[in-house]
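Hi, here's the filled form for the chain we discussed.

Project: internal
Contact: R.S.
Residues: 259
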Amino acid sequence: MEVVVCKTKEEASKLAAEMVTAQVKKNPKTVLGLATGATPVLMYNEMAKAVKAKKVSYKQVKSWNLDEYVGLAGTHDQSYRYFMNENLFKKIDIQIKNTHVLNGLAKDLEKECAAYERQIKAAGGIDLQVLGIGSDGHIAFNEPGTSLKSRTSCVYLTPSTIKDNARLFFKGKEKEVPTRALSMGVGTICEAKKIVLLAFGENKQNAVKGCVEGPMTQFCTASALQAHNDCWIFCDEAAAKKLTLKKYYAWRSATKLGL
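And the returned structure, exactly as it came back:
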């Protein structure tokens, strides 16, 4: 695990975007795992800039998103399919048919999740997975208490996640946030060949601490990433504040990235 500590979220997002761009340039048929939420938006903007500048093309790239709310159609303006279309897919040259988001309206949610797993496997697995992290240390919708070997499934959201997501997507109206979601499992996520996690702000301090330096435990599902052999954590100073070895991580990652 490498921790890249930047002064600002803008700087961190740009470095993370450069890593994604480098991966796609190296392998034009890259399979991406993508995340939603406010955290990756700046990175997605940087990715779009690279496409506009003709530095990279996503025409052959395929993507699978982490999660989707149960009960929301992809056309719903609070769905993650809608979010991805507006914040990334419309801004780059990826083919929409090559983008995949779980169907929150599937009649059989268990079959939908199993099919998603098969699709990812058939594509050769995720080459690079983008992640955010919840304030309680969860990744995707794998709330505290989730098995670190879990697969894509239907999950129930905690009150804290509902509150956070109401702020981000539902104009503060918690009662409008679905209580269930379909989500890649921790085990599914950890099978990605490379992982890029972004974390910004003081409210992510405990989550980053638990992810990087805490015990590997189901009570902080992001801690499973400690066992991954190619995982990069991009965070700002605020999110990294509680890391005991912050200065060492910053030096090591800067050396590896040639900064």
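Let me know if anything looks off before we file it.
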